[in-house]
Design a protein that fits this description.
alpha+beta; eight-stranded antiparallel sheet; two-stranded antiparallel sheet; 6 helices; 10 strands; binds zinc ion
Length: 232
Amino acid sequence: MAKKKKKKELLAFPRVVERPEDCLGCGYPLEGIPAPGLCPECGLPFEHGLSGLQIAGVAKKSAGPTWRRAVWIVIAIVAFLYGNLIAILFINSPIIALVILAALIAGVVGMALTSPSKKGVGSEFFTFVQGGFSRWPVGADPSAREFRAWDGVNPGVVLKPVSRVWASMSVVQFDERGKREVLLSGGFRCQRDDLPMVQGGLIRLMRGESIADDHELIERLNNLHDPEFTSV
Ligand SMILES: [Zn+2]
């Protein structure tokens, strides 16, 4: 397994996971607390046994703040204007020209250094449970977890094949007035043929049903083979 990892850093296929060691909501360590139970820190319930469906993927919109997009747009506009006016600027006031250049470089470097996706090319874990789903960047501290409860009406998920082992995922819910809200949109590794099974498991969790006793589903989901390693 270690060899595989070194060779190619692939995202894991979806799988059914046990109650997490740390709370899915706040990252509080739950070791020693019997399941089912409630997190003593934030009150989020957790189940017994294999109760969550974990998907590793890349979200279109990462968990980071939305102001970043605005900052990138400002940098792009300034860079565009600067590129067009650079000759005039340098002739008239070379100091201002240099200051703007320095500010542009500082802006780009600063944004790159603070990028939330600098580790692991932005891949995240999405863990779906009966009450909602938690997400966190791969390799992040448990305190980075963000939990989103199913608080709308009729949450749903649409999975579509993109390639042989890559699929898109869209998790939505509706408010009382029927307004659609996209909770999660992104891509993950999963074979085309396995998508209906993953979707079925997700929908059951969204309805508040447990999958912990569905041994067939767990057995099948946790033995998804990887064609890149098994086929010739
Ligand atoms: Zn908690």
